[in-house]
Amino acid sequence: MRNSIRNVIVPNTLFLIKRERKTVLIIVLSILFALSSLFVLFSILHSEIQEYNELAVEKRTYLVDFYPREESNFYDNFSLLFERSVFPRPEEYGLPLVFGEYEEGTTGNSSIAAGGGRYRELRAKWQFVFGKKESYELNYEVEVPELVEGRWFTEQEIEEGSNCVVLDKSRFPGASVGDNFTAFGVYVEVIGLVSGEDNFMPFSFIKQPQVDKGLISVDSNLITFEKEISKAGLGKLESVLRSMPTRLYDDNIQAYMINAVINIVIIGLSILIVSFNLFSCYHRLVDKNIPLYKVVYFCGGTKGLLYIGLLLPPLVIITPSYLIACSIFNVFISKVFSGINPLTFSQLLLPFVFFMGICTLYVINLISSYLRKERIL
User: Fold this and answer.
1) Of 23, 118, 137, 276, which has the most beta carbons under 10 Å away?
2) Under DSSP, is residue 331 helix (H, G, I), strand (E, B) or coil?
3) Cα within 13 Å of Cα(26), Cβ side
C-alpha cells in the first residue's frame, strides 16, 4: 500500500493540482477569506468569553455605600461586612480604603490649615494601615509610601493601634515630625511626613474605646467577595444602610447575553456557509479523481487506498492555506482592526480542527456515495 501511495496517489495528487489550477485557486482564496473571517469571529467570541469571566466576578462585586440609617453609624456598617458568620471574605477592594474624619455636628469634612501652635485640630481623610491579621481578614494591604521626613509605623504600633500618624505634607505644609494633633477626639503624634499621598494611621487605633466613632465616615467602595452575599446578608445590610449595595452585573448581564447570542449565531452561520462552500469545491475534485481511483481499485487497490487518495488533494490544499490564513490574521488583521485580539496557537488550531472535522465528514459521505453508485462498495 505504501508503494501505491508513493507511486500512484502522490503523483496523481500533484498532477491534479496542476491540472485544476483554477479550481485550486478558487479553493485557496475561499479558504483564506473564510478562515480569516472565522478567526476574526472567534477572536470576538474569545473576547466575549473573557467578558463573561469578568461578568462572573461582577456577580460577587458590590458597590457599598456605608451611609447609615439613623440607628447606626459608618464604622458599625464597615465592621458589619467582616462578620464571617454572615458575609463572605473580601477578595479585592476597588479603591483604597479611605475613612473621613468629620467635624462634630456636620455632614462634611472641613479643610483645616496647618498653622502655628503645638496642638492643632485635624479634620482629614485617613487611609488606615492594617496589621498582619487584619490584612488577612480584609484581604487588603497598604503600600508603604516614600517618606519625606520621619519614619513609618513599627509593626508593634500597627498591631497595638498606637496614637501616631503619618501626614501628607503637601496638604499640611506647616506640620512637623513630633507635632500633636487631635484625631477622632484623641491626641496623636506625627511620626512621619509624605508628599502627595493620603494621611495614614493604624486601623487598630479607631478600635480604642476613647475614639469618637461618631466622627468616622467611610467612602463608598467596590468590594469583590469570594462569593455572592446571601439573602440573609443583604437583608442585614438593608436594615442598617440608607441604600442597598448594587452590582454592575445586574446592569450588564442583559446586554452581554444579547451580544453573546448574536455572536454565536453569526459564527454558526459562517461555519455552515464555509463548510458548504468547501464541500462544493471538494465535489469538483472528487469528480476529477473518481475515474483514476476506479481503475486503481479494479487493479487491486484497497478501499483504504481510495479514501486516502480522494482525501489527500483537499488536505494538501487546505493545510498551507490554513497556515497562510493564520499568518494573515496574526500579522495584519489583528494589527489593523482595533478590538481584535491575536489568538494563541491552540485557539487557532481548535477552530481549524472543528472546521476540518465537519468538512471531512462531508467528503467521506460524498466519496461513499460515489463508490456505492459505481458499485465499488
Assistant:
1) 23
2) helix
3) 11
DSSP assignment, residue 20?
T
Cell 479643610 found at: 111
Q: How far apart are CA 369 and CA 203, in angstroms?
A: 79
- Whether residue 150 contacts residue 191, with contact meaning beta carbons closer than 8 Å, is answered with yes
Specify the amino acid at residue 74: F
Tens-digit pLDDT string for the chain (377 aa): 555 555 656 666 666 666 667 777 777 777 777 777 777 777 777 777 777 777 788 889 999 888 888 777 888 888 888 776 788 888 888 878 888 887 765 444 333 333 333 344 557 889 989 888 888 877 888 888 999 999 999 999 999 999 999 999 888 888 899 999 888 889 999 999 998 878 999 999 988 889 888 788 887 888 999 889 988 888 888 888 888 888 878 877 777 778 778 877 877 777 777 667 666 666 666 666 666 666 666 666 666 666 676 677 777 777 787 788 777 777 776 666 666 666 777 777 776 777 667 666 766 776 677 667 666 54
Number of residues in the chain: 377
Distance between CA 33 and CA 103 in Å, rounded? 68
Compute how many other C-beta atoms are within 10 angstroms of the C-beta atom of residue 374.
Answer: 13
**Cell numbers found for residue 56:** 462572573
